[in-house]
């Protein structure tokens, strides 16, 4: 693990709070997978929404208008995910999970890198790009007969298959949303990592945690919120800051 401790000024109060925390909740966004080589959504030059229009690709209406375009775009995204792998930020969160009694990782990402890295208690708010579901029945479909049709059809009802992700205007999976709200409300420390905080309802989780007494830690390349005695902002790469914070808090041996 890279030792960057000297480069980051982690306040002693934060390290103490983290060491004694009983409930830690973490919200992650596309920025945590950026160092794995996946594009974020809103980074001005490299983000997906700088090149593609979300209303043409990430809404149910877009899929109904042009299912082939949407399916193929997600197929391309799936290939990017398959080629990439978790980075030190994902692995640092696995270490935090092993140190605190109650740990919940809430992710907006659809790449399963947290699970791949070894995180156990993961809530996927926006679905998973590796899964496919029926557009009509909204149920996960594991396999379908080989076909040249794009998109393929549901083997049960014949309607189109689609990626099992949450598009704009769609409800988040209710059980996941409630679990995330509960984790935010009961957290002693709440991390917000690599998210621009522009998409609701995920964007409200850090505020909910703060209102319920949590210490909030943000890690982002850009400044996303003002600091206060309960909000610590670290600006930089999650893959460098998180491992350094883990090492400074618990040391190499985990003591
Ligand atoms: C680094 C880094 C490094 C880079 N280290 N950091 C209230 C107010 C206004 C609007 C709404 C509202 N409530 C609901 C809405 C509508 C809408 C919404 O929020 N719109 C806003 C955009 C205006 N929300 C919805 O529609 C949601 N549904 C909903 O609320 O349903 C309610 C409902 C009720 C009743 C009936 C019907 C509905 C659904 C939202 C679904 C979002 N879907 C997407 C696509 C998922 C599938 C896919 O992957 O294609 O989810 S959009 C996209 O944005 C994706 C992400 O998960 C999500 C968040 O993006 P994220 O992760 O924050 O990425 P970026 O790119 O924005 O930020 C990356 C950050 O990382 C940057 O800050 C960088 O600086 C940083 N970074 N490198 C650290 N190395």
Descriptive notes:
The protein is an alpha/beta fold. 35% of the residues lie in helices and 17% in strands. The protein contains ten helices and eight strands. It has helices at 12-20, 48-51, 54-57, 60-65, 67-83, 88-99, 113-117, 174-186, 205-211, 238-250; strands at 23-28, 102-107, 122-124, 127-134, 161-165, 189-193, 215-220, 231-235. Strands 3-2-1-6-7-8 form a six-stranded parallel β-sheet, sandwiched between helices. Strands 4-5 form a two-stranded antiparallel sheet. Strand 2 (102-107), helix 7 (113-117) and strand 3 form a beta-alpha-beta unit. Helix 1 (12-20) crosses helix 10 (238-250), helix 6 packs parallel to helix 10 and helix 8 (174-186) packs parallel to helix 9 (205-211). It is elongated, with a radius of gyration of 19 Å. The protein starts with 11 loop residues before the first helix and ends in a 5-residue tail after the last helix. Mean pLDDT is 95; it is low at 1-6. The site of ligand BJW has 35 residues, from strand 7.
